[in-house]
Amino acid sequence: MALPEFKIAQLRHFVWVAELKGFHTAAEKACRTQPAISLSIRDLENKLSTILFEKRNAKTSNTELTPFGQYFLPKAKELIAHHDNVAQDMALMSEHKTGHLRLASVPSIACRMLPELLSKFIADVPELHISFYDDNSEAVLRKVEKQQVDIGIASLPHGHEHADITFTPIWEDQLGVVCREDHPFAEMTELHWKELRKQRLIRNGTSRLLEDTEAEPLLSDSQFLISNMLSLIAMLEEGLGITTLPWFAFPKNNSKLRFIPLTTPKIVRHIGIVQLKNKSLSPAAEALANFILKNTNQKKTSDLNPE
């Protein structure tokens, strides 16, 4: 059976018609005529031997996907993204650039460690292009597994199933309780997890560190879930409740909040470089990984003063 050979332009036209809900708006985006877009879509449908869009309904001006079109849409986007990544890399090479590095990191390291590290690293490779993404550990791991980034900086979840990932530990920090400066906990030097149970708790992306510990009941006790760090800090500053955070995730120089180490149980988070197993890194990615390992003082929370 002969496989269809897709043209990237046709895939783009298909995605634009689907997302913009019309051939006219897609034609404007593509700087083409509407008949040209219709012909492009028709040729793509011929290659697939099926239609992608429902017949126009006189009652609506929107263009709707067929069930096959709905299935094909994410596939087309994936092909376009892969093509664009390759094209971008090759364009940089052809312009005598040193390459394109894609890096993902958890926000705490992105804020505390990476600005200084990347500033020093880029000084030796001023032509290197870097795409940087910050997200929680699970999202970073998924980006590495899907090869959307070259390397990631994250922690591995307890009992993780990421068999294709190698992990090189670099940093570690301890979990603590974060509350407003006028909270009764603010003057304490350490806390037991049971002392938190009568408080209004806010769960966040790092709360998974409580799983499989004696403090796991705090997860079900939590009244709120806030995944965005900026929103979380704003809610804490307003006195909405308290939360648990690793030390590196605690905002530096924040005078409104306090960090109190959680000592029972003592939960330590290990953060490091994650990459695909049995897959070579690009020269730029390998250089950055080696640079981070060479230039990082492996700090622990026990070495830091929360004040």
Automatic annotation (TrEMBL):
Keyword Transcription: yes
PROSITE patterns per UniProt: HTH_LYSR (PS50931)
Pfam families recorded: HTH_1, LysR_substrate
GO molecular function, a single term: DNA binding
Residue span, HTH lysR-type domain: 6-63
UniProt cross-references to CDD domains, sorted A to Z: PBP2_LTTR_like_4
Gene3D superfamilies cross-referenced by the UniProt entry: Periplasmic binding protein-like II, Winged helix-like DNA-binding domain superfamily/Winged helix DNA-binding domain
Gene Ontology cellular-component annotations: cytosol
Protein name (database record): Transcriptional regulator, LysR family
Alphabetical list of InterPro entries matching this protein: HTH-type_LysR_regulators (IPR050950), LysR_HTH_N (IPR000847), LysR_subst-bd (IPR005119), WH-like_DNA-bd_sf (IPR036388), WH_DNA-bd_sf (IPR036390)
Family statement drawn from the similarity comment of this UniProt entry: Belongs to the LysR transcriptional regulatory family.
Alphabetic keyword roster: DNA-binding, Transcription, Transcription regulation
